[in-house]
Specification:
CATH topology of the largest domain: Cytochrome Bc1 Complex, Chain C
Number of strands: 2
Number of domains: 2
Helix content: 55-70%
CATH superfamily of the largest domain: Cytochrome Bc1 Complex, Chain C
Order of helices and strands: HHHHHHHHHHHHHHHHHHHEEHH
Structural class: mainly alpha
CATH class of the largest domain: Mainly Alpha
Strand content: under 5%
């Protein structure tokens, strides 16, 4: 006899494990035969996957607001095959909710609560409730936008409860705002309390299901084979979902200051839609009492569904409960799909999430994901531009081209942009929609309001001179690490000569010029450099940019100064992002 069977025999003599294993499968399924066995096995299968992958994920997860998102990002994008583990865990959790609901619905239709099996039925309901609880608590653990804001929405609903609402909400969040203590409590629930309750519910239901059951070896073998097939099918589906989604979605780090389009988890969307039928404090009763009444009905179903009463009378509310939940969920999804404002906010959030994931690949600071949002120019600079600049300007995917009242910044300060701008300054994408319309003449086109018989000389005598001016001005904004400036040294030298001799009638160059005393046209030295851009954002009327008359009240819709609204750090970040994004170079 080989070593394996001898070890198995040795363990069996001391533990009786073979009899225990045989008793676990050697009984007929109660309530619905093969279907009941298939659903129950499927539930047990996803619970097994959740337990195994959950233990593995715990080895990499760090439950704190500073490290939670970073640790999940590491698992999803850095750790070898970590995305598979996380994906299996995520999709198993989603499948568990659906399978538990199907199990309850199937049990109601086959009256699995009959024949003194009320406790077994209640344990089936408990598995569904625990599945929802696991989905809610697990959704927060990545500490990303979706999970954080979903918990905020749910906490706000609880907070509407009379007398105890505020207390319950603070207990959930761990303080006035969802933070470290709330995450710690939810993590403990998710990895400690809920697994114990799951084990009690599943094992207790299994033991109760086997009371008084009989079956021969053939029945045992048949059920074992069926269970094995169901298990294989469930695992195959989970792997397929994981592969298709490449794990599980991770949104950007939770940011309490963002305008994220918050929604609950998909399995709570019916509550989100249900609350629309109630207002004010009534939201709590609508989203708590109505589901509570539905749950109470399911708990009392063994006494409601009596042999002396028509089954249709007892089952109609069951169908209404599950059908209503599905229907309200579909209504919410359809409404969101046709809500242009929501879709716009959703697209904006998706773009921000994708950018955060990409930036995190370069390294996450020790202070965590939120600090990354506040410190990375790609993220914070973009956010500041969106909040303060996109109402007038257009750059990349930010701003409204139809409503813009200031210069379109795509390509700003590049040689191509400057060449087009000095040719037609009043074009809509340049100064044509702002207060400087008509202030700057074209360098090579006669002004429309100038009489034909009046002498006129262009500032650039040829395309070569115009190209030279554009190349020189573009080079003025170059910073260390930028791509080499366009044109050769001789061309840029010609451009510098033209600028210093012909453009200083209105402009300053190195502090000199402005022969007409307009005190309005910008300083061209270091034009569009990082220092120039910072100065322009902080105060357009400074001597280094557009000078004192840039804030003249007569210039309607002029650019405001932001040094009173933004910190120096934010001004630096938005300057870096704007300049780099406009030029199409990496943000540093």
């Amino acid at each position: 006899m080989s070593l394996g069977p001898r070890v198995a025999d040795w363990l069996d003599e001391r533990t009786g494990w073979r009899a225990i294993a045989r008793s676990w499968v050697d009984h007929p399924a109660v309530g619905g035969g093969p279907w009941a066995l298939a659903i129950g096995t499927a539930v047990a299968s996803v619970l097994g996957v959740l337990a195994l992958t959950g233990v593995v994920l715990m080895t990499a997860y760090a439950p704190s607001p500073q490290s939670a998102w970073a640790s999940v990002h590491y698992v999803e994008f850095v750790q070898d095959r970590g995305w598979i583990i996380r994906g299996l865990h995520y999709w198993a959790a989603q499948a568990l909710i659906m399978l538990a609901a199907i199990h309850v619905l199937h049990g109601a239709f086959v009256a699995s609560y009959g024949h003194k099996r009320e406790i077994q039925w209640w344990l089936t309901l408990l598995v569904l409730a625990l599945s929802l609880g696991a989905g809610i608590t697990g959704g927060l653990l990545p500490w990303d936008q979706r999970g954080w804001w979903a918990r905020v929405v749910e906490g706000n609903i609880v907070g509407l409860a009379p007398v105890v609402g505020g207390f319950l909400q603070e207990m959930m969040s761990g303080g006035p705002e969802l933070g470290a203590l709330g995450l710690s409590r939810i993590y403990t629930l998710h990895v400690a309390l809920l697994p114990i309750l799951f084990a009690v519910a599943v094992v207790g239901r299994r033991l109760l299901a086997g009371r008084g059951a009989t079956g021969g070896a053939a029945a045992s073998s048949r059920q074992a084979a069926q269970a094995l097939l169901v298990f294989a099918a469930v695992v195959a589906v989970l792997f397929a979902l994981t592969g298709k989604a490449h794990g599980a979605r991770l949104e950007g780090p939770a940011d309490p200051m963002s305008d994220y389009p918050a929604r609950p988890e998909w399995f709570l969307l019916f509550l989100y839609e249900l609350r629309k039928f109630f207002h004010g404090a009534g939201e709590f009763w609508g989203t708590t009492m109505v589901p509570g009444a539905a749950a109470a009905y399911l708990v009392l179903l063994p006494w409601i569904d009596r042999p002396s009463r028509p089954r249709a009378l007892a089952l109609t509310p069951v169908v209404a409960i599950f059908g209503g939940a599905v229907g309200l969920t579909v209504v919410t999804l359809r409404h969101d799909a046709h809500d242009k404002q929501y879709q716009k906010m959703r697209a904006k959030a998706d773009a921000q999430d994708a950018l955060a994931i990409r930036v995190a690949g370069q390294g996450i600071p020790p202070a965590g994901g939120l600090a990354m949002l506040r410190e990375a120019p790609e993220l914070r600079g973009r956010a500041v531009f969106d909040a303060h600049c996109a109402s007038c300007h257009v750059l990349a995917d930010l701003g409204d081209p139809e409503k813009a009242t200031a210069t379109k910044l795509d390509g700003w300060s590049t040689a191509e942009w400057i060449q087009k701008m000095i040719h037609d300054p009043d074009a809509p994408e340049f100064f044509g929609r702002g207060p400087f319309k008509g202030q700057m003449p074209s360098v090579d086109v006669r002004p429309k309001d100038q009489p034909p018989d009046e002498p006129w000389s262009p500032m650039t005598k040829s395309d070569a001179e115009k190209h030279a001016v554009a190349a020189f001005l573009a080079s003025e904004g170059s910073e260390p690490g930028d791509p080499p400036p366009q044109g050769d040294a001789s061309q840029r030298a010609l451009g510098q000569k033209i600028v210093s001799e012909r453009c200083t009638t209105c402009h300053l160059y190195k502090g000199e010029g402005d022969d007409e005393g307009s005190d309005k046209a910008p300083e061209l030295s270091k034009y569009a450099s990082l220092a120039w851009t910072r100065s322009q954002i902080a105060n357009p009327a400074s001597p280094t940019t557009y000078r004192s008359k840039a804030l003249d009240a007569a210039l309607k819709k002029h650019m405001p100064r932001f040094d009173g609204d933004l910190s120096a750090a934010d001004i630096d970040l938005v300057a870096r992002w704007t300049r780099a994004t406009a030029r199409g170079i990496p943000v540093r």
